[in-house]
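Practice problem: predict the structure.
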Amino acid sequence: MSRRTLRADGQAMDAKGKYVYCIIGSPGERKTFDISGFMGSEVYALLYRDVSPVVSDVPFREYAVNEEEVEGHRRVVEEVMKDHSVLPVAYGMSFKNRKLLQIAMAAGYPAMQKAFSTVDGKVELGVKVFLPRSADWNDERKRCCRDDFLSNLQNAAADHKELKLFSDRLILNDAYLVKKNRIDEFSQLVSQLSSRYDDARVQYSGPWPAYNFVDIHILGKKRKGFR
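Answer:
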């Protein structure tokens, strides 16, 4: 018999809810990961056709924004990424039971298959170029710097997205989808480009799941982009 607890309003709550961290291709058999999930729970792949949600069994609840839990979600995904291509899932994706999760998987299955063809064997890398407050660049130099980074990094990437320039000092804010076997090549290019513009600050991040290249709400619940 499955355990059940009572909510404050007296209604039963399934103690075996499913919290979803990400989606991977099916490993073929039950697979567990060498990292603890929320509340110290086991992290494992729940088999569904040829894709698998990576989940923990924890009490079902709504997930408000919590810095520690958001970071815990990220740590699990980063561990899974070591050996698998992943489809990212927004923070807070929780289902009351396995049946409801399977219904969501069935509804999203065609989109998941399409997304896997995009991200298989690839990761997202981020590049930002900032100007220090002391730097005095004219518009032409800013454009040349941006074009230099973009034209060179595109050659080592499968795809790229230009993201919002949220500051007047931000020259470039791009996400690149890069094959895992080309990460070193891409990193060397970033280093070479950075050396050309030593009075700018280059922020290089990743590898990440392909947040900017697939739908992070792939299970159908709309959340506000925490990842």
